[in-house]
Design a protein that fits this description.
This protein is α/β, with parallel strands linked by helices. It has a single domain, classed as Rossmann fold. Helix content is 33%, strand content 26%. It is built from ten helices and twelve strands. The strands form two sheets. It has an eight-stranded mixed sheet, with helices on both faces. A hairpin with a 2-residue loop joins strand 5 and strand 6. The chain starts with 5 loop residues before the first helix and ends with a strand. Mean pLDDT is 87; it is low at 1-22. It binds adenosine-5'-diphosphate and magnesium ion. Magnesium ion is lined by residues 66-67, 107, 183-184.
């Protein structure tokens, strides 16, 4: 079991204090969430919120606990302690309600290799309960929105990484979920694909709450309203991007907060 360092337990609060989300409805609320794998504490006492219509950047170095946290929020991994709600529903006791309201893109998109893109997305629309008469039109809509219409007749197995990510995003938004959770959606993409995905995420943020896990700082600066930085299983920074990077660049804040002696900043 990893020992807790004192700076993890005494965060410095700066910024907007209790007005964290203004009047915005809280769509993701994480309270003291922890997860251990055997003796290894991967996530320890994580708390943060995401408001309606916010794009929240969930930042941290490799191994910080981003995927573990996200999988708990997406109801695929039971927490060892703490609780979380998504769209007001508990991720453990109301997992079915949560799943109806989220779009989740895991690190590796869950595609069926032997299906064509259009077949796969039609199948997803069916299992996500899109009204039968709307399925064909909805599949066309998300293919356009995610720039995958040109590969509609390709087998998922034959897609490049960039297209796999975009088809993964298309399945995540199929039922127009209130909350979209994306685990490093731009990893492994080329610069042009990254720009396209960022634009798409930005546009999704106009109508949805988005939790975007990444370790690419410029991405956060470009698309996010709010930042949560995790390091070694703990939240070390939380706040609106404008507050967190008011006096320093996000890069500086990140490097200081993930270094052993860095400060904890809760620009809440
Ligand atoms: N199934 C698992 N069993 C044991 N350790 C795991 C497992 N999954 C992740 N870990 C460990 O938990 C820590 C956090 O991992 P992860 O949540 O994947 O971090 P991130 O997504 O930020 O890179 C890492 O040290 C990782 O090696
Ligand atoms: Mg990860």
């Amino acid at each position: 079991m990893r020992s807790r360092r004192s700076f993890f337990t005494s965060p410095l609060t700066v910024g907007l204090g209790a007005q964290q989300n203004g009047d915005a409805k809280v769509m993701i609320e994480v309270r003291g969430l922890s997860k251990s794998y055997g003796d290894y504490q991967a996530v320890e006492d994580i708390s943060f919120t995401a408001g309606k219509g916010e794009i929240v950047g969930f930042l941290g170095p490799n191994g910080a606990g981003k995927t573990t946290t996200i999988r708990m929020l997406a109801t695929y991994l039971p927490p060892t302690a703490g609780s979380a709600t998504v769209a007001g529903f508990n991720v453990v006791t109301q997992a079915d309600e949560v799943r109806k309201r989220i779009g989740y893109l895991p690190e590796n998109p869950p595609l069926y290799g032997e299906m064509k893109v259009v077949e796969y997305l039609t199948f997803i629309a069916e299992i996500k309960g899109v009204v039968r008469s709307r399925i064909a039109a909805r599949v066309e809509e998300v293919m356009e929105q995610c720039f995958v219409a040109d590969v509609r007749n390709k087998l998922c197995n034959h897609l490049s990484r960039g297209y796999r990510q975009r088809v993964g995003l298309a399945q995540a938004i199929m039922n127009d979920p209130e909350v979209i959770i994306l685990d490093e959606p731009t990893s492994g993409l080329d610069p042009k694909q990254i720009i396209e995905i960022r634009k798409l995420i930005k546009s999704l943020g106009e109508r949805h709450t988005v939790l975007l896990s990444t370790h690419i700082l410029p991405e956060v600066a470009m698309v996010c309203d709010k930042v949560v930085i995790v390091n070694r299983g703990h939240v070390v920074v939380e706040g609106p991007l404008s507050q967190v990077s008011r006096d320093k660049s996000l890069e500086q804040v990140f490097l200081e907060s993930v270094s052993q002696d860095g400060p904890i900043v809760t620009a809440a």
